[in-house]
Amino acid sequence: DAGVIQSPRHEVTEMGQEVTLRCKPISGHDYLFWYRQTMMRGLELLIYFNNNVPIDDSGMPEDRFSAKMPNASFSTLKIQPSEPRDSAVYFCASRVASGELFFGEGSRLTVL
Amino acid sequence: GQQVMQIPQYQHVQEGEDFTTYCNSSTTLSNIQWYKQRPGGHPVFLIQLVKSGEVKKQKRLTFQFGEAKKNSSLHITATQTTDVGTYFCAGVSGTDKLIFGTGTRLQVFP
Questions:
Q1: Which of B35, B96, B99 sits opposite A31 (nearest CB)?
Q2: Percent of chain B scored above 90 by pLDDT?
Q3: B20 within 8 A of B13, measured Cβ to Cβ
């Protein structure tokens, strides 16, 4: 298996622009997590899905952030409009119930 | 909400010295996982502990889960330069939500 695949790996955009991050989980994994990592705040859980259904989105910073999982093999995290404080590495991870998390390589976002 | 703290935040050691990081949760955990993240990389799973008081070993690494299932530790014996990275614990309580600790960054000098 190719592992968790994220795109883009790097994104540089200007404040106010829409950003869409994409994730393909490992086939057969029924949980998908989105984390954000910064030096100041560490690894923050933004949202997680079980069987494509959002279970807990209490970590989503504000209404500018939204996440979807239209099917078992694809998820998106969207920021609209983006702000400089959104600059971070965004990780997608998947797993089976009670199993280990497999992380993607991450998407490094820079908002100017 | 649930919080998971780790100490120390940073640790610099000479190669060959031992290293320990401690993880403390504000709530009782159903299980705890440990991850390692190399500089510029992504977190990689090391181990999962489930039982109260459980101790597991992986070569030079020893993992322990506290009796009250609210704390855990990772001990590395005789560190090597390959041990460099940030070590995270991740706690699960109640639901399947994994909350990561604040991490301990280990630097090993040859």
A1: B96
A2: 88
A3: no
